[in-house]
Amino acid sequence: MTPSIPLLHAAVVLALGCPMVLFGMLGAASLVPERWTEGAIARVTGTSMLICVASLTLAFVVHLLHGQAAEVWTARQWFSSGSGAFRFDVLVDTWSLAFALLAATLCGVVSAFSARYLHRDPGFGRYFTLFAGFTAGILLVALAGSVEVLFAGWELIGLSSTLLVGFFHDRRTPVVNAMRVFATYRFSDAAMLTAAAVLHHEVGSGRLSALFLTGDEGSISDLSAGSATVIGLLLIVAVAGKSALLPFSGWLPRAMEGPTPSSAVYYGGLSVHAGCYLLIRAEPVFDASVVARCLLAAIGVTTALYATLVARVQSDVKSALCFATLTQVGIIVVEIAVGLRTLAFFHMIGHVCLRLLQFLSAPNVLQDVAAFETARSRPIALRKAQGRWERRLYLFGLERGFVDTVVDRCIVAPFHAIARFGDRIDRFLAGETPP
Amino acid sequence: MTYPEAWPEAWPEAWVLGLLGLPALCVALPRIDPSLERQRIVAVTAAITMALVGSFPMFMSTFGAWEIHLGTPLDLECRTPLLRMNRLSSVLPTMAAALWLLTVAVTPKMLLARNGLQRTALATLFTTVGFLTENGPLLWVIWAASVRTLLSALDEEAPPSRSHRDVVGWYLWGSTGALGLGVALVGWSRPGSVYETYGLGLLVLAALVRKGIAPFHAWVPAVFERGRLGPSVLFCAPQLGTYVVAVLVVPRAPETMLRTVAVLALFTAVYAAALAVVQRSARRACAYLFMSQSALVMAGLDCASDEALTGALVLWVSSSLAFAGLGRCVLVLEARRGPIDLSQHHGGYERKPILAVTFLLLGLTCTGFPGTLGFVGEELLLAGAVEDFPLLGFLVVTSGAFTGIAVLRMYFSLFCGARSQSVRLELRPREAAGIVGVVAILVATGLYPAPLVSSRLTAAADVLASRDRPRECR
Question: Which tens digit of pLDDT belongs to each residue from A220-278?
Fold first, then answer.
């Protein structure tokens, strides 16, 4: 641990504060009848992002100049209870600052792109409010030093993501898809919250240094193998939901209903990789639990194989790109599972940048293909599936691995049946005639 | 009278007079001025003043407690005070005032019954007196009076929609009977005797019915769906059953009884949240959301850890305000559109963003979303519950997940969908101010929860300490 560096602390607090204040400002502005103009929203967002990136760059440089040691410090004590305190802790090390800087830079780029892309859209202000919420969320996840902060960021990402999937909410399909995305997120968030509670219970505090840093006081080495396995498995469920790993992959193509810039930054870029970042940070947990590590590897391999098959037969560019993204996410997860943490981190950074660019240029690609076909005077021919196995794989890919069907039949339908039965019982107890 | 060091001699009387006098004035108002709009202005002013007066103890750092002793037949030996203010009840009158303010400010004009404001003030008066006493007989009187107030509101409906009224009456009068019998048994039996245990069981039963804990919950969805939503919300939101458990049951009950109730409450929390997900009626979904939140509070109250108890007390405040706000939002929408079917998307976000955003924030408070008071309550409850019994922690999380899905489904249904131009949807300034005010309180206390948590922590410590006091006289 290095001694505290006030300049670094100030820079990190400023970087975290900018998107949060922006989120609050735009949210409050959306409530008043005389809303801000597009230009004002774009200028305020741009300035905020610029300050955020500059602060994180400064923090990164200061950190490198001061020996690159990890530090967890309390920015503010939130509240204290009988046996412990809930603090706003920030974890500063090379991994967290690098990921935060990447996230802030990409959010800044996408916000500039969005200002033009969504020009004169009725939901312009709403989009930027949610986008500011996402930026705040991803920075909280990147720099979280306690489970409470991590969970706050995790939830903020989930909510903003859901509301952006349902951005065009005067149509039914985006809203239905947003609901599906949210249901999956809630499931994974529940796992995250349970992991947080177990950590609190076992370590006695919510400090993430216990999970992320080895050799720290109250670190993972103090946990029993059983507890480490439980925390590891819960983290896998949390990450699988957020990063669309199997068996939660069904929501990813549905999330493409949102505006393209948000799809780029969420599902091509940062949101699906937030889980990978968490797994990279939590490597000490997987070092302590062979079971969790093996399961992680298995999920990574199956997700990569599944996604690569499905990506090849998608008929729209955004779906093809999202499954291509998922393939790489699966591979990154395998890299983490076999202990190649540094490789996984650089793979993730490179992949985020590439996919984000591909998503942002996807509408242009459609135009380019049309122009290309017009110039050739005939459409680009697609090869037909031949042979029994190839046709079966084609069908498997076209139906997206039947993931949605399985979830509908095995989870959604039984849940609805049980809940409706309970409702009928309640009506009977209230003296109503059963419908 | 006994006074703590921080209260100058005449203050308790003046404080009580101010607190109870304001709703009492509004009860008498229709005899003075028949104009509903003028009555509403007076009621809003009285509710704001009451909230300010009620919050006074929260700002006194050395606040201890005061008591007004008037012996009652059942409590002569222990000399339970008739009225008292302690750390547990220090925030509750403010909460009652906030609920009153929300009700009078947000109720649409077309839904305002002739004596609705009077009944609202009466309900607030009963609730506030209830929160200022731990005298069993007086609590029973308050309990019965509030039940009577709700049932009288249901009686005003046209006969075809009154079929539910008898069922609700059976449940609520049953709970009143159980409470009365329980108070009598506990008051007259020796501490630790089997009769005291029976009495405590009856008190718990009364609270379970009033809070809508399964399997005694069927009246809640019925009264919300088919009764009058406004009075039902005002009856349920303060959670008088929680208060009865905190002051009469927790100090005396054996641990096994509390543990059993906690398990029952947590299963109810999950069950009700799951049922809220599949409802078609917005009112019924609201009822199940209330049941789920109320059950979480009950579960925390029955845990042995101070963290869980603090969480429950924080959650009590947050869930009451958030649930009342959600109920009012539904009422406002119904006044403009008629009954709301959640299987449809009704649209109109662009025309009422304030209502949509506040609805979402109120719902997120119920789910324990970070940045709201609900998050603070649920985090504390979860941390305490896991310490106490890990399965309980898992159920808290599961309930939160289902509640989140139910809330977002309601939000999408109520505010998303094709734009409709035929209905006037804009909020009146009075309505907007009421709902935004509640959201502001929930967000402000969520971002800066330390004072409230500290106050609830000391209250929890008092409640737990009361378990260790000599059993002859608590």
Answer: 666 777 888 888 899 999 999 989 898 888 888 888 888 888 888 887 778 889 999 99
Distance between CA atoms of residues B249 and A117, nearest Å: 61
Average the pLDDT over A127-148 and give the result. 91
Cα B448 to Cα B437: distance, rounded to the nearest angstrom: 16
**A186:B401 CB<8 A:** yes
Confidence class for position B205, pLDDT limits 50, 70, 90: very high
CA nearest neighbour of B452 among B360, B316, B361 = B316
Q: For residues B251 and B266, what is the distance between their CA atoms, to the nearest angstrom? A: 21
Q: How far is B28 from chain A (nearest CA, A)?
A: 35
Residue A201 to residue B386, Cβ atoms within 8 A: yes
Percent of residues, chain B, with pLDDT higher than 90: 27
**CB pair distance less than 8 Å for B371 and A151:** no
CB B258 within 8 A of CB B200: no
- Separation of alpha carbons B365 and A402, rounded Å: 36
CA distances from A300 to A246, A261, A290 (A): 8, 27, 15
Query: Which stretches of A66-120 are DSSP H helices?
Result: 94-117
Query: What is the SS3 assignment for A316?
Result: coil
* The token pair that represents B302 in the structure block: 């029955």
Which of helix, strand or coil describes residue B2? strand
**Are A145 and A171 contacting, i.e. CB atoms less than 8 angstroms apart?**
no
Q: How far apart are CA B131 and CA B126, in angstroms?
A: 9
- The answer for B 78-137 residues in CB contact with A (under 8 A) is none
| Chain B closest-CA separation from residue A334 CA (Å) | 29
The string of DSSP codes covering A319-335 is HHHHHHHHHHHHHHHHH
Residue position matching structure tokens 């029994």 = A388
Residues of chain B with C-beta less than 8 angstroms from the C-beta of A179: 405, 408-409, 412
Q: How far apart are CA B248 and CA B205, in angstroms?
A: 13
Average pLDDT over residues A364-373: 78
Hunting for tokens 């922590």 — which residue is that?
B457
- What pLDDT digit, counting tens, does each position of B55-107 carry? 777 666 445 556 665 545 444 445 567 777 778 888 888 899 899 888 888 87
Is the peptide bond prior to B215 cis by the omega test (within 30 degrees of 0)? yes
Give which of B168, B266, B278 to mutate to test A binding, by max A Cβ within 10 Å.
Answer: B278
Tell whether the model's pLDDT for residue B389 goes beyond 80: no
Note whether B458 contacts A: Cβ–Cβ < 8 A.
no
The distance of B274 to chain A (nearest Cα, Å) reads 6
Which helix (H) or strand (E) segment is B111 a member of? none
Burial class (CB in 10 A: 0-12, 13-18, 19+), A3: exposed
Q: Are B123 and B234 in contact (CB under 8 A)?
A: yes
Q: How confident is the model at residue A131 (pLDDT cuts 50, 70, 90)?
A: very high
Give percent of chain A with pLDDT exceeding 90.
Answer: 35
What value does the mean pLDDT take over residues A385-391? 81
φ/ψ (deg, to 5) at A226: -65, -45
More confident: B234 or B303? B234
Model confidence, pTM: 0.90
Question: What is the rounded CA–CA span in Å between residue B9 and residue B12?
Answer: 7
Contact residues, chain B, for A152 at CB < 8 Å: 370-371, 375
Which residues are registered as beta bridge partners of B251? Answer: none
Q: Which residues contact B215 (CB under 8 A, 6 or more apart)?
A: A429
B387 in A contact zone (CB under 8 Å) = yes
Q: pLDDT tens across B308-326, in order?
A: 889 899 999 999 999 999 9
Give B405's contacts in chain A (Cβ within 8 Å): 179, 182-183, 186
Q: How far apart are CA B138 and CA B136, in angstroms?
A: 6
pLDDT beyond 80 at A283: yes
